[in-house]
Design goal:
Layout lengths: L5 H23 L4 H23 L5 H36 L1 H19 L6 H41 L1 H11 L4 H39 L5 H12 L7 H13 L3 H29 L5 H15 L3 H23 L5
Protein backbone atom coordinates (compact mmCIF):
# COMPACT_ATOMS: atom_id res chain seq x y z
CA UNK A 1 0.00 0.00 0.00
CA UNK A 2 1.40 3.37 -1.06
CA UNK A 3 1.63 6.14 1.51
CA UNK A 4 1.70 9.87 0.81
CA UNK A 5 5.05 11.25 1.97
CA UNK A 6 4.79 13.36 5.08
CA UNK A 7 6.49 16.33 3.43
CA UNK A 8 3.71 16.53 0.81
CA UNK A 9 1.06 16.48 3.52
CA UNK A 10 2.77 19.26 5.48
CA UNK A 11 3.31 21.29 2.31
CA UNK A 12 -0.35 20.90 1.25
CA UNK A 13 -1.57 21.85 4.71
CA UNK A 14 0.65 24.95 4.79
CA UNK A 15 -0.50 26.04 1.31
CA UNK A 16 -4.13 25.54 2.32
CA UNK A 17 -3.58 27.60 5.46
CA UNK A 18 -1.88 30.37 3.47
CA UNK A 19 -4.68 30.37 0.87
CA UNK A 20 -7.36 30.52 3.59
CA UNK A 21 -5.76 33.46 5.40
CA UNK A 22 -5.13 35.23 2.09
CA UNK A 23 -8.78 34.76 1.11
CA UNK A 24 -9.98 36.24 4.42
CA UNK A 25 -7.63 39.22 4.11
CA UNK A 26 -8.48 39.80 0.45
CA UNK A 27 -12.23 39.68 1.03
CA UNK A 28 -12.09 42.20 3.87
CA UNK A 29 -9.58 44.50 2.16
CA UNK A 30 -10.91 44.22 -1.40
CA UNK A 31 -11.87 47.90 -1.27
CA UNK A 32 -8.14 48.71 -1.36
CA UNK A 33 -7.44 46.72 -4.55
CA UNK A 34 -7.83 49.75 -6.86
CA UNK A 35 -5.82 51.82 -4.37
CA UNK A 36 -3.02 49.25 -4.58
CA UNK A 37 -3.20 49.29 -8.40
CA UNK A 38 -3.10 53.07 -8.42
CA UNK A 39 -0.18 53.24 -6.00
CA UNK A 40 1.79 50.67 -7.99
CA UNK A 41 1.05 52.51 -11.25
CA UNK A 42 2.34 55.80 -9.87
CA UNK A 43 5.32 54.06 -8.29
CA UNK A 44 6.43 52.58 -11.63
CA UNK A 45 6.11 56.00 -13.26
CA UNK A 46 8.05 57.76 -10.48
CA UNK A 47 10.67 55.19 -9.43
CA UNK A 48 13.36 56.18 -11.97
CA UNK A 49 13.10 59.84 -10.97
CA UNK A 50 13.19 58.86 -7.29
CA UNK A 51 16.32 56.73 -7.69
CA UNK A 52 17.95 59.47 -9.77
CA UNK A 53 17.35 62.09 -7.07
CA UNK A 54 18.54 59.85 -4.24
CA UNK A 55 21.50 58.25 -6.03
CA UNK A 56 22.78 61.01 -8.31
CA UNK A 57 21.84 64.10 -6.33
CA UNK A 58 22.03 62.44 -2.87
CA UNK A 59 18.60 63.67 -1.82
CA UNK A 60 17.02 62.39 1.36
CA UNK A 61 14.63 59.56 0.49
CA UNK A 62 11.66 61.01 2.37
CA UNK A 63 12.23 64.50 0.96
CA UNK A 64 12.38 63.17 -2.60
CA UNK A 65 9.29 61.03 -1.98
CA UNK A 66 7.33 64.00 -0.61
CA UNK A 67 8.27 66.14 -3.63
CA UNK A 68 7.22 63.43 -6.10
CA UNK A 69 3.93 62.92 -4.25
CA UNK A 70 3.18 66.63 -4.53
CA UNK A 71 4.13 66.83 -8.21
CA UNK A 72 2.10 63.75 -9.09
CA UNK A 73 -0.88 65.22 -7.25
CA UNK A 74 -0.65 68.42 -9.27
CA UNK A 75 -0.01 66.63 -12.59
CA UNK A 76 -2.66 63.92 -12.24
CA UNK A 77 -5.35 64.76 -9.72
CA UNK A 78 -5.98 68.40 -10.61
CA UNK A 79 -6.82 67.68 -14.29
CA UNK A 80 -8.89 64.67 -13.21
CA UNK A 81 -10.72 66.86 -10.70
CA UNK A 82 -11.43 69.43 -13.45
CA UNK A 83 -12.83 66.79 -15.78
CA UNK A 84 -14.86 65.20 -13.00
CA UNK A 85 -16.40 68.49 -11.88
CA UNK A 86 -17.32 69.44 -15.45
CA UNK A 87 -18.97 66.08 -16.08
CA UNK A 88 -20.60 66.06 -12.64
CA UNK A 89 -22.30 69.40 -13.28
CA UNK A 90 -23.60 68.18 -16.62
CA UNK A 91 -24.71 64.80 -15.29
CA UNK A 92 -26.52 66.32 -12.32
CA UNK A 93 -28.23 68.80 -14.62
CA UNK A 94 -29.33 65.97 -16.94
CA UNK A 95 -30.63 63.88 -14.05
CA UNK A 96 -32.61 66.80 -12.63
CA UNK A 97 -34.14 67.58 -16.03
CA UNK A 98 -34.52 64.05 -17.37
CA UNK A 99 -38.10 64.65 -18.57
CA UNK A 100 -37.11 67.72 -20.53
CA UNK A 101 -34.11 65.85 -21.92
CA UNK A 102 -36.36 63.06 -23.22
CA UNK A 103 -38.70 65.59 -24.80
CA UNK A 104 -35.79 67.34 -26.51
CA UNK A 105 -34.43 64.00 -27.73
CA UNK A 106 -37.82 63.08 -29.16
CA UNK A 107 -38.08 66.49 -30.83
CA UNK A 108 -34.62 66.13 -32.40
CA UNK A 109 -35.37 62.61 -33.65
CA UNK A 110 -38.76 63.60 -35.06
CA UNK A 111 -37.14 66.56 -36.80
CA UNK A 112 -34.52 64.32 -38.41
CA UNK A 113 -37.10 61.71 -39.40
CA UNK A 114 -39.38 64.33 -40.96
CA UNK A 115 -36.58 66.16 -42.75
CA UNK A 116 -34.86 63.09 -44.22
CA UNK A 117 -37.71 60.58 -44.37
CA UNK A 118 -36.11 58.01 -42.09
CA UNK A 119 -37.13 56.13 -38.94
CA UNK A 120 -34.66 56.18 -36.06
CA UNK A 121 -36.23 55.35 -32.71
CA UNK A 122 -39.69 55.15 -31.24
CA UNK A 123 -40.60 57.23 -28.17
CA UNK A 124 -40.87 54.02 -26.13
CA UNK A 125 -37.31 53.05 -27.05
CA UNK A 126 -36.11 56.53 -26.20
CA UNK A 127 -37.69 56.36 -22.74
CA UNK A 128 -36.28 52.89 -22.11
CA UNK A 129 -32.83 54.00 -23.25
CA UNK A 130 -33.05 57.11 -21.11
CA UNK A 131 -33.98 55.10 -18.03
CA UNK A 132 -31.16 52.66 -18.61
CA UNK A 133 -28.70 55.51 -19.17
CA UNK A 134 -29.76 57.27 -15.97
CA UNK A 135 -29.17 54.10 -13.94
CA UNK A 136 -25.75 53.56 -15.51
CA UNK A 137 -24.74 57.18 -14.94
CA UNK A 138 -25.80 57.00 -11.29
CA UNK A 139 -23.75 53.83 -10.80
CA UNK A 140 -20.68 55.42 -12.39
CA UNK A 141 -21.05 58.64 -10.38
CA UNK A 142 -21.43 56.62 -7.18
CA UNK A 143 -18.33 54.60 -7.97
CA UNK A 144 -16.47 57.81 -8.79
CA UNK A 145 -17.33 59.37 -5.42
CA UNK A 146 -16.01 56.29 -3.64
CA UNK A 147 -13.03 56.53 -5.99
CA UNK A 148 -11.95 59.72 -4.24
CA UNK A 149 -11.41 57.72 -1.07
CA UNK A 150 -9.50 55.16 -3.11
CA UNK A 151 -7.19 57.91 -4.37
CA UNK A 152 -6.36 58.97 -0.81
CA UNK A 153 -5.64 55.37 0.12
CA UNK A 154 -3.48 55.00 -3.00
CA UNK A 155 -1.32 57.96 -1.99
CA UNK A 156 -0.90 56.56 1.51
CA UNK A 157 0.31 53.25 0.04
CA UNK A 158 2.47 55.13 -2.49
CA UNK A 159 4.28 56.96 0.30
CA UNK A 160 5.51 53.70 1.79
CA UNK A 161 6.35 52.34 -1.67
CA UNK A 162 8.52 55.35 -2.46
CA UNK A 163 10.28 55.56 0.89
CA UNK A 164 11.01 51.82 0.89
CA UNK A 165 11.24 51.29 -2.87
CA UNK A 166 14.42 49.26 -3.33
CA UNK A 167 13.83 47.07 -0.30
CA UNK A 168 10.22 46.49 -1.37
CA UNK A 169 11.20 45.48 -4.91
CA UNK A 170 13.95 43.18 -3.69
CA UNK A 171 11.66 41.43 -1.22
CA UNK A 172 8.79 41.13 -3.70
CA UNK A 173 10.83 39.47 -6.42
CA UNK A 174 12.73 37.27 -3.96
CA UNK A 175 9.46 35.94 -2.53
CA UNK A 176 8.00 35.08 -5.92
CA UNK A 177 8.04 31.26 -6.24
CA UNK A 178 9.25 31.38 -9.85
CA UNK A 179 12.38 30.59 -11.81
CA UNK A 180 14.87 33.42 -12.18
CA UNK A 181 14.15 33.95 -15.88
CA UNK A 182 10.43 34.13 -15.17
CA UNK A 183 11.00 36.65 -12.38
CA UNK A 184 12.83 38.88 -14.87
CA UNK A 185 9.99 38.36 -17.34
CA UNK A 186 7.48 39.50 -14.70
CA UNK A 187 9.58 42.55 -13.83
CA UNK A 188 9.78 43.64 -17.48
CA UNK A 189 6.15 42.93 -18.37
CA UNK A 190 4.79 44.70 -15.28
CA UNK A 191 6.60 47.90 -16.24
CA UNK A 192 5.48 47.63 -19.88
CA UNK A 193 1.90 47.00 -18.78
CA UNK A 194 1.84 50.10 -16.57
CA UNK A 195 3.41 52.39 -19.18
CA UNK A 196 1.14 51.13 -21.95
CA UNK A 197 -2.05 51.59 -19.95
CA UNK A 198 -1.30 54.51 -17.64
CA UNK A 199 0.38 56.67 -20.30
CA UNK A 200 -0.72 55.27 -23.64
CA UNK A 201 -4.49 55.22 -23.09
CA UNK A 202 -4.88 58.79 -21.68
CA UNK A 203 -2.41 60.12 -24.23
CA UNK A 204 -4.59 58.77 -27.03
CA UNK A 205 -7.57 60.64 -25.62
CA UNK A 206 -5.63 63.88 -25.12
CA UNK A 207 -4.23 63.89 -28.66
CA UNK A 208 -7.63 63.30 -30.22
CA UNK A 209 -9.32 65.75 -27.85
CA UNK A 210 -7.06 68.63 -28.86
CA UNK A 211 -7.29 67.66 -32.53
CA UNK A 212 -11.09 67.91 -32.29
CA UNK A 213 -11.05 71.06 -30.13
CA UNK A 214 -9.69 73.03 -33.08
CA UNK A 215 -12.74 72.37 -35.26
CA UNK A 216 -15.10 72.89 -32.31
CA UNK A 217 -13.77 76.43 -31.94
CA UNK A 218 -13.76 77.13 -35.68
CA UNK A 219 -17.34 75.87 -36.04
CA UNK A 220 -18.52 77.93 -33.07
CA UNK A 221 -19.80 74.95 -31.09
CA UNK A 222 -21.39 75.86 -27.76
CA UNK A 223 -19.26 74.85 -24.77
CA UNK A 224 -16.29 73.49 -26.78
CA UNK A 225 -14.38 72.45 -23.63
CA UNK A 226 -17.22 70.15 -22.64
CA UNK A 227 -17.05 68.48 -26.04
CA UNK A 228 -13.28 68.33 -25.67
CA UNK A 229 -13.78 66.30 -22.47
CA UNK A 230 -16.30 64.05 -24.23
CA UNK A 231 -13.83 63.53 -27.10
CA UNK A 232 -10.98 62.90 -24.66
CA UNK A 233 -12.94 60.22 -22.80
CA UNK A 234 -14.31 58.55 -25.94
CA UNK A 235 -10.84 58.68 -27.51
CA UNK A 236 -9.60 56.29 -24.84
CA UNK A 237 -12.07 53.69 -26.09
CA UNK A 238 -11.10 51.47 -29.02
CA UNK A 239 -13.39 50.41 -31.87
CA UNK A 240 -16.01 53.21 -31.63
CA UNK A 241 -13.64 55.81 -30.15
CA UNK A 242 -14.26 59.49 -30.89
CA UNK A 243 -17.32 58.65 -32.98
CA UNK A 244 -19.14 58.75 -29.63
CA UNK A 245 -18.35 62.48 -29.57
CA UNK A 246 -18.55 63.84 -33.10
CA UNK A 247 -21.56 61.78 -34.28
CA UNK A 248 -23.96 62.98 -31.51
CA UNK A 249 -22.64 66.53 -31.89
CA UNK A 250 -23.23 66.39 -35.67
CA UNK A 251 -26.79 65.16 -35.10
CA UNK A 252 -27.49 67.96 -32.63
CA UNK A 253 -26.21 70.59 -35.09
CA UNK A 254 -28.15 68.98 -37.92
CA UNK A 255 -31.39 68.99 -35.93
CA UNK A 256 -30.89 72.69 -35.17
CA UNK A 257 -30.63 73.50 -38.87
CA UNK A 258 -26.83 73.92 -38.96
CA UNK A 259 -26.22 71.53 -41.86
CA UNK A 260 -22.82 72.88 -42.90
CA UNK A 261 -21.47 72.85 -39.34
CA UNK A 262 -22.79 69.33 -38.85
CA UNK A 263 -21.15 68.20 -42.09
CA UNK A 264 -17.86 69.89 -41.13
CA UNK A 265 -17.81 68.25 -37.69
CA UNK A 266 -18.66 64.83 -39.10
CA UNK A 267 -16.12 64.89 -41.94
CA UNK A 268 -13.37 66.34 -39.75
CA UNK A 269 -14.01 63.74 -37.05
CA UNK A 270 -14.15 60.87 -39.52
CA UNK A 271 -11.17 61.88 -41.68
CA UNK A 272 -8.83 63.96 -39.52
CA UNK A 273 -9.40 62.80 -35.94
CA UNK A 274 -9.61 59.19 -37.14
CA UNK A 275 -6.26 59.60 -38.90
CA UNK A 276 -4.76 61.14 -35.77
CA UNK A 277 -5.91 58.03 -33.89
CA UNK A 278 -4.13 55.70 -36.33
CA UNK A 279 -0.91 57.76 -36.40
CA UNK A 280 -0.82 58.14 -32.62
CA UNK A 281 -1.33 54.40 -32.08
CA UNK A 282 1.54 53.62 -34.48
CA UNK A 283 3.80 56.00 -32.57
CA UNK A 284 2.78 54.58 -29.18
CA UNK A 285 3.35 51.04 -30.43
CA UNK A 286 6.99 51.91 -31.09
CA UNK A 287 7.62 54.07 -28.04
CA UNK A 288 5.84 52.68 -25.00
CA UNK A 289 4.12 49.48 -26.06
CA UNK A 290 0.57 48.74 -27.09
CA UNK A 291 -2.50 47.46 -25.31
CA UNK A 292 -4.80 45.30 -27.40
CA UNK A 293 -8.06 47.16 -28.24
CA UNK A 294 -10.23 44.42 -26.71
CA UNK A 295 -8.30 44.63 -23.43
CA UNK A 296 -8.89 48.37 -23.39
CA UNK A 297 -12.58 48.03 -24.31
CA UNK A 298 -13.45 45.37 -21.72
CA UNK A 299 -11.11 46.95 -19.18
CA UNK A 300 -12.89 50.30 -19.42
CA UNK A 301 -16.29 48.61 -19.03
CA UNK A 302 -15.15 46.71 -15.93
CA UNK A 303 -13.15 49.65 -14.58
CA UNK A 304 -16.00 52.16 -14.75
CA UNK A 305 -18.25 49.77 -12.86
CA UNK A 306 -15.66 49.00 -10.18
CA UNK A 307 -13.66 52.21 -9.81
CA UNK A 308 -15.68 55.02 -11.41
CA UNK A 309 -13.86 57.59 -13.52
CA UNK A 310 -10.38 56.28 -12.73
CA UNK A 311 -11.51 52.92 -14.10
CA UNK A 312 -10.47 54.19 -17.54
CA UNK A 313 -6.92 53.37 -16.42
CA UNK A 314 -7.24 50.72 -13.71
CA UNK A 315 -9.69 48.51 -15.60
CA UNK A 316 -7.32 47.75 -18.50
CA UNK A 317 -4.44 47.34 -16.02
CA UNK A 318 -6.46 44.77 -14.06
CA UNK A 319 -7.24 42.73 -17.19
CA UNK A 320 -3.62 43.03 -18.38
CA UNK A 321 -2.47 41.75 -14.98
CA UNK A 322 -4.81 38.76 -15.25
CA UNK A 323 -3.43 37.89 -18.69
CA UNK A 324 0.12 38.30 -17.37
CA UNK A 325 -0.62 35.79 -14.59
CA UNK A 326 -1.85 33.29 -17.19
CA UNK A 327 1.37 33.74 -19.19
CA UNK A 328 3.47 33.29 -16.07
CA UNK A 329 1.66 30.06 -15.24
CA UNK A 330 2.27 28.78 -18.77
CA UNK A 331 5.96 29.67 -18.67
CA UNK A 332 6.47 28.22 -15.20
CA UNK A 333 4.47 24.99 -15.27
CA UNK A 334 3.25 24.15 -18.77
CA UNK A 335 6.66 23.50 -20.28
CA UNK A 336 8.62 20.29 -19.75
CA UNK A 337 11.72 20.51 -17.65
CA UNK A 338 14.95 20.24 -19.60
Amino acid sequence: MNHIPGIYIRQSFLLLLIATIFGILFWNLRFFLPALLGAYTLYVLLRDVLFYLTSRWKWNMKLASALLLLLSFIAVLLPVNWVFRMLQDRVMSLLQNSDGLLQNAERVIHSLEKQYGITLLTPENIRALGGWGAIQVQDIVGATVSGLGIVLAAYLILWFMLTEGKQMERSFFEWMPLKHENVEYVRKRLNEMVYSNAIGIPLMGIVQGFAALLVYWLAGVDDPWFWFVVTFLSGMLPVVGVALAYVPLSLILLANGMEWKALLIFLYGFLVVGSVDNIARMWLLKKIGHTHPLITLFGVIVGLKLFGFIGFIFGPILISLFILLLKIYHKEFDQPNV
